[in-house]
Amino acid sequence: MSVMRDGDRTPDGPTAAQKSAVELAIRTEHLTKIYGQRLIAVNDMNLEVPRGSVFGLLGPNGAGKTTTLRLLLGLQRPTAGRAEVFGKSCGPNAVAVRSQIGYLPTNPELPEDLRPIEYLDLLGKLCRLPREVRQPRIASLLRAVGLLDATDQRIQTFSTGMCTRLGIAASLVGDPPLLLWDEPTAGLDPSARRFTLDLIRELGKTKTIVVATHILSDIDQICDHLGVMHEGRMIFTGSTQEIKQRICCDDITLELEGDPDHIGRLAREVTNLEGVEARVIDGQAVRVRIANGRSRSLVLAEILKSVDACGLSLQAIHSGQNVTENAYLQLLQEDEAHGFHR
């Protein structure tokens, strides 16, 4: 009688390893990077990024996000552990892996003497794209990133936002299925930032995207999965909904118009409700915190009755403000509190 071992094919379908390769864009096991026996940049990281996700790699500056991306690209060798992209090992010689990745570094350094078409054409040649494919794609990319009007300018005249847009186009020249973008909204004005976030949402319909950032609002707007890094360690991975569920309560902010004394009275009445806390903020608003286990809709219905009873006019209701930020800060505080237990 033969014994089936882990990894053997079963009649029901593919092995676990084969299934993982199909469903995951990125997988790391105990990935570690130590510089000069002094600085631990990435510490025993186990990470899984689902195919087709927009994955936010979140953490403060110096957490190890950029090093993680460079390890996935094979630009650096790990001190220990391993990383895979689409089931293939990453490393300096993994040319086939790099061809599947489009990389956008923070504040990309571009050849200043070239014009946008010249630069993208050079990249297309390096990707071994034939001219009949390369030229239409370059034109399409320049249109997509809003640089058609700047094709005759040299890159040295570009603003920070224009350089980021050209860097985005450069990462897409080879039409890779995986994009690794490092702080793509850093230093951008509001218009350029909005453009970049909209583009990520659109690209996320057909590609897997990893966005490394420390900007929480970006994560909330574009990501469906995320990982939180702190001091080189991955301290949380999961869906954006899962990180929000770590907070044991939810906030509702009521913007009100009326006598400040009546607003104070409303806050006191709401606090008397079971599992509910309320406080006045900025004089004309009440922030309500509802504990888990209480129906938010029923509590809100009771609060709205109290608003009328207090003779106040309701101007707006905001729900779920700062939930991701609170969960993120909670994770960092918990990790620091663990100390030697980590």
Describe how the helices and strands are arranged:
Layout: H1 16-23, E1 24-35, E2 39-50, E3 54-58, H2 65-73, E4 80-85, E5 88-89, H3 95-98, E6 101-104, H4 116-126, H5 131-144, H6 160-172, E7 178-182, H7 190-203, E8 208-213, H8 216-222, E9 225-230, E10 233-239, H9 240-244, E11 249-257, H10 260-271, E12 276-281, E13 285-291, H11 296-309, E14 313-319, H12 323-338
Parallel strand pairs: 3-8, 3-9, 6-7, 7-8
Antiparallel strand pairs: 1-2, 1-4, 4-5, 9-10, 11-13, 11-14, 12-13
Helix pairs in contact: 4-5, 10-11
N-to-C CA distance: 45 Å
Average pLDDT confidence is 86
Strand content: 25-35%
Please give the largest β-sheet.
6 strands, mixed
What's the tally of helices?
Answer: 12
Radius of gyration in whole Å, from Cα?
A: 25 Å
Low confidence ranges: 1-11
Reading the helices and strands in chain order gives HEEEHEEHEHHHEHEHEEHEHEEHEH
